[in-house]
Specification:
The complex is a heterodimer of chains A (324) and B (487). Chain A is mainly alpha-helical and 324 residues long. In chain A, 72% of the residues lie in helices and 2% in strands. Chain A has helices spanning 3-32, 40-58, 61-85, 90-108, 134-139, 143-161, 163-173, 175-180, 185-211, 223-233, 238-261, 267-271, 273-284, 287-294, 299-309; strands at 122-124, 140-142. Chain A is globular. Chain B is α/β, with parallel strands linked by helices and 487 residues long. Chain B folds into two domains: 3-233, 3-Layer(aba) Sandwich (Rossmann fold); 250-483, P-loop containing nucleotide triphosphate hydrolases (Rossmann fold, 3-Layer(aba) Sandwich). Chain B contains 17 helices and 21 strands. Chain B has helices spanning 41-48, 71-76, 94-99, 110-123, 139-152, 169-186, 197-203, 225-232, 289-296, 319-324, 334-338, 345-352, 362-375, 391-400, 420-435, 447-453, 476-483, and strands at 3-12, 15-25, 30-35, 56-61, 64-66, 79-82, 157-161, 189-193, 206-211, 214-220, 250-258, 269-274, 278-282, 304-309, 312-313, 327-330, 408-412, 439-443, 456-461, 464-465, 469-470. The model of chain B has no long low-confidence stretch (mean pLDDT 86). The chains are: A mainly alpha (324), B alpha/beta (487). The A-B interface holds A 161-164, 166-167, 169-170, 173-174, 176-183, 291, 294-295, 312, 315, 323-324 and B 51-53, 70-73, 75-76, 87-92, 96, 99-101, 103, 105-108, 262. The complex binds adenosine-5'-triphosphate and magnesium ion (MG).
Chain lengths: 324, 487
């Protein structure tokens, strides 16, 4: 493989990973606020279908994305409402919505399979695209990729540098204490569940309008679960989550290459590769093993290493605010 | 700020936690609030600080009636409360924890805020490191942070609910100094809820006493302790002299045992505890005594050396083997480690039932629970969930769940948060068990308790165990020196 080819592969990994990155950022926001929206797989299918159909019918790309976002926001609103207002289990609601989104997308999308529709146009950013190596990989892409990259930094800044982000995280860690500090935990959980859901919806539409253009039944099936796994893998941090999404894309690309090199090995084995990698890394960063590895680390390095490697889920993830 | 409570009422089902309480707190003074476990002190203070809503009654601040919808509301009106367990954010940085809830600016100016926080700390004599994680701090430090946060939020009335349980002596002195300063120099009103009469006498100028949800008396301090005790308890049974230990049978023996956690490695331990003996462990929190206890309970592995229970070697001990072998462990965190939030007392009893088969004998469990609840004088019913119990009653219930025949009981802070009567009562129960040859190994931060209740004592400091001293021949002062690391 020469340099040009390598750059092309890397650019394609970035493009493939972009919708995942968007979904991961959205779900990270939601889970950081203490709600787990498990319906991602169904949401993405339904919004991929809706997004495509809306864009196809109106011939307007933006309307397609807006429709996808609306579907995602609506599903998320159901999760938020049933858990916050009706005190139902978030896991149960999420599962039901996953199944609903899947079947609904298959049913409503029947008439629209394998049709042409608008797709996100390629747009190289002047000047930046001429930076050696990075330019063609990152800045010779389309709007979706740029949006995903901006989103990583925006959500990260929001979560860890802004005051609203502080409140958002507090609702996910210890809602009772957050409430005592005057944080409106319920409103805030609604807000971030809906925003997170809208982003997941955009991610769904991104598949049918950009990465895997068009609609067919089960178009994005499985990708929602992958996004959920990557949120955990990324330790509820957008930057680490994005790295996870890229790593996932890279192993998939590697699997394709390997498969061509070793045609006698079953396809299934190579498809399992990304998962094996993910499980391996999760084990590696598990607190026990990190703790053991760090016992002999120099004290000056211990703290920052620990901070980087050890992650815990938001302590109140999936629980309700209890007061009175 | 002058604070007036008028006819405050709060009922939890049958329980009248607050029954028509009226009180006045004047500015610039420190008040004590006393009462036995479950008397309603915390409830009253939670109402005053906006954490719970009263069923009836009025809160009047400087002549104006107020209603609080949340603790943040109350703080905005000048009322701040430090809870028994600090209401902070363990995964956050100290700085983030401080900033949360402050309404200023959109982006956080971390550098400026860190500087402000350090200075505020200095003003009250607290050494604050804004970049540390809350979860790495001691209880006393977390408390200091909460105090600073409330002061920064404009608190004029500060409520401290049992602030000295679980903090070191130095931290206590520091806390009391700053409390005095706040009252005298800044004219703030302070309320101290406590079971420790000496502290109250030392700090407060006036006390109010609650019993069973009612205000039953007040007194100007100083006054004789007996007067306060008589107000708090209708009748206090006389203290029984404890029998001295006779048996010389070994209950627990450690030889060159090495135990370590990622944070602290203990020096090799040599320790013998005899059957029927009460062995006290003192030391600052985190000095290693907790690790020893956990190792004996089978919760931490012994890396080298040996441990024996009676004559039985216990090298590969795990928690369940320890339980089966007759070792019982009671952790300091009641609700976190000892009890299961959300389960009723009966369900707890069914859980610890050792002969339990697949089917739960609910009627039997309920009967047993009722009998134990009565015997151990737990204020609650077999159908209460554990978080409905007051702190003291949770502790009593933990004792009620201990299996009946045991070789060794390991206790972390067995009487933390308990009133005098319950404390006495718990030790009586433990004394009864000593007669059957049960050995008791316990940790306490209260040096007087360690001296008074133990037969022998060892002190931990920085992972080292001191020589073993005879309780009859020592005093709190000597232990204090040992805690400081003297040999
Ligand atoms: N949320 C609740 N639900 C039901 N009962 C409650 C609840 N909170 C408190 N109680 C009951 O109200 C009574 C008063 O409790 P409170 O916590 O105010 O006592 P306390 O004086 O602070 O006791 P302690 O010294 O043990 O802390 C107790 O009998 C307790 O069981
Ligand atoms: Mg209390």
């Amino acid at each position: 493989m020469d340099n040009g080819q390598l750059i092309a592969v890397l650019a394609s990994i970035l493009l493939q990973a972009s919708p995942l990155i968007i979904a991961v950022c959205g779900e990270t926001l939601t889970e950081r606020a203490g709600i787990v929206n498990l319906s991602l797989d169904g949401t993405m299918l339904l919004s991929a279908m809706t997004g495509f159909v809306a864009a196809h019918l109106t011939d307007n790309l933006m309307l397609g994305f807006a429709a996808g976002a609306a579907v995602g926001a609506f599903f998320a609103l159901i999760v938020a409402f049933s858990s916050i207002q009706l005190k139902q289990s978030q896991v149960a609601t999420g599962f039901v919505l996953t199944l609903l989104g899947d079947s609904l997308s298959a049913f409503l999308g029947q008439e629209y399979t394998r049709l042409p529709g608008p797709s996100v146009p390629h747009f190289a950013i002047p000047i930046l695209k001429d930076i050696p190596i990075l330019g063609p990989i990152i800045f010779n892409q389309d709007g979706l990729v740029y949006f995903a990259i901006l989103l990583i930094f925006a959500t990260s800044w929001w979560l860890f540098r802004s005051r609203p982000g502080l409140e958002l995280r507090s609702a996910g860690e210890r809602p009772e204490a957050a409430f005592a500090r005057g944080v409106n935990v319920r409103r805030l959980r609604y807000l971030y569940t809906v925003i997170g859901g809208a982003l997941v919806g955009i991610a769904g539409a991104a598949y049918s309008l950009d990465v895997k253009i068009g609609w067919s039944e089960g178009h994005t099936r499985g990708l929602g679960w992958i996004a959920l796994a990557i949120v955990i893998f990324g330790g509820w941090s957008p930057v680490r989550g994005a790295i996870g999404a890229l790593l996932f894309g890279a192993t998939k690309a590697a699997a394709t290459v390997l498969q061509r090199a070793f045609p006698e090995v079953s396809v299934v084995a190579f498809n399992a590769l990304p998962w094996l990698l993910m499980i391996g890394v999760l084990l590696l960063v598990s607190n026990k093993i990190v703790g053991r590895l760090l016992v002999n680390a120099p004290p000056a390095l211990k703290r920052p290493l620990q901070r980087m490697l050890q992650v815990a889920p938001p302590a109140a993830l999936g629980t309700e605010l209890k007061n009175e | 700020m002058r604070v007036e409570l008028q006819n405050i009422r709060k009922h939890f089902g049958e329980v009248r936690a607050n029954d028509d309480i009226s009180l006045i707190f004047e500015p610039g003074k420190i008040y004590g609030l006393l009462g036995e476990n479950g008397a309603g002190k915390s409830t009253l203070m939670k109402i005053l600080s906006g954490f719970q809503k009263p069923d009836g009654g009025k809160i009047i601040l400087d002549g104006k009636a107020r209603r609080f919808d949340s603790p943040a509301d109350a703080l905005a009106a000048g009322v701040g409360m430090l809870y028994q367990e600090p209401l902070d954010m363990p995964p956050f940085l100290v700085l983030e924890n401080y900033l949360l809830g402050q309404r200023r600016g959109f982006a956080v100016n971390a550098r400026q805020a860190a500087k402000d926080l350090r200075e505020l700390g200095k003003k009250y004599g607290f050494d604050i490191q804004p970049e540390e994680h809350i979860r790495d701090l001691s209880l006393g430090e977390r408390q200091q942070l909460e105090l600073l946060r409330l002061l920064a939020g404009g608190a004029q009335l500060l409520i401290l609910d049992e602030p000295t349980t679980g903090i070191s002596t130095e931290q206590k002195v520091l806390l009391f100094d700053s409390m005095r300063k706040l009252a005298k120099d800044e004219g703030k009103t302070l309320i101290l809820v406590s079971h420790k009469l000496d502290e109250v006498q030392d700090l407060c100028s006036q006390v109010f006493v609650l019993r069973k949800g009612k205000l039953v008396g007040e007194a100007k301090l100083p006054c004789p302790n007996e007067l306060l005790v008589n107000l708090m308890f209708e009748k206090l049974p006389p203290r029984r002299e404890r029998a001295s230990r006779e048996q010389k049978q070994v209950a627990l023996e450690l030889k060159d045992a090495v135990v370590a956690t990622p944070r602290l490695e203990l020096q090799p331990l040599n320790l013998t505890v005899y059957a029927g003996e009460v062995f006290g462990l003192a030391g600052l929190e985190g000095s290693g005594q907790e690790i020893l206890l956990k190792a004996c309970a089978g919760l931490l592995p012994i890396r080298s050396g040996s441990m024996q229970l009676g004559h039985q070697p216990l090298d590969q001990l795990d928690y369940h083997a320890a339980r089966a072998g007759g070792i019982s462990y009671m952790a300091a965190g009641r609700v976190e480690e000892g009890l299961v939030a959300g389960l009723t007392l009966t369900e707890h009893m069914a859980l610890v039932d050792q002969e339990a088969g697949f089917f739960v004998d609910w009627a039997g469990s309920r009967a047993r629970t009722k009998e134990r609840v009565q015997h151990f004088q737990v204020v609650g019913t077999s159908e209460s969930t554990v978080e409905q119990l007051s702190g003291g009653n949770q502790q009593r219930f933990l004792f009620a769940m201990l299996p009946s025949s045991l070789k060794l009981i390991l206790l972390e802070h067995p009487t933390r948060g308990l009133d005098i009567r319950s404390t006495d009562w718990i030790w009586q129960q433990l004394d009864e068990r000593r007669k059957d040859g049960t050995a008791i190994l316990f940790i306490s931060a209260d040096l007087d308790e360690v001296v008074e209740r133990s037969d022998r004592i060892a002190v931990f400091s920085g992972g080292r165990m001191s020589r073993v001293v005879d309780a009859a021949k020592t005093n709190a002062e000597e232990l204090g020196h040992l805690i400081g690391g003297e040999q």
